[in-house]
Here is the input.
Amino acid sequence: MQILGIDIGGSGIKGAPVDTATGLFLEERHRIPTPQPSVPEEVCNVVAEIARHFSWQGPIGCTFPAIVKNGVVYSAANVDKSWIGTDGQALIQHKTGCSAVLLNDADAAGIAEMEYGAGRGRKGVVIMLTFGTGIGSAIFIDGVLLPNTELGHLEIRGKDAEDRASDRIRQEKDLSWEKWAEKVDEYLQHVEYLFSPDLIIVGGGVSKKHDRFLPLLHTQTPIIPAELLNDAGIVGAALAARWRV
Ligand code: BGC
Here is the structure.
């Protein structure tokens, strides 16, 4: 099946048609900067522009960096607050004229990794964590997703975990890999204590540089880098849309 996967992020919105039988892109991906302020109307106009770029008329799977339930957005940690309560899925359908599915970005990335990446064939409790502007999470139990887990907002010593250990913090504070790894380590040990996972997959842009920080961590759980990197959101969005559009 061919589905247009779109990944809405804080700085860019990118999409590509995906062959869901292989997880591969059918055309080169197209990226447009996220409008600022990132209000629903403007963001969905960009989604429609991406669909037009591919002359798309089929189904669309789209990610969003917040809690999304039945197409409706319930939080807005790193996007404009006016998203809260918006039926983003309906708005995308309205703007594109295509059937669409909207889901959380880390859930989408996790779905892609479980099917075509680092989590292939892995049973038990697998936790995918994406380190970017925020920290996204996706929990799988024998391959089945528990959606919208929001583990980036666990509280660590009185502070949101993503305000301590996201890749944004590493960059903003110009932390060395060692210093940042200490924060990630503290966070992961908390996650490990709460969920006793069998495997942790680390994604997000920074996972490209996994050799700089994964060896510095002390979790007991095996921890491996994501394989699909930047493409995971797009691929996972398309896969999620397979059964639902
Ligand atoms: C949001 C999550 C999202 C994560 C990664 C967090 O701030 O609350 O919904 O998955 O950032 O974008």
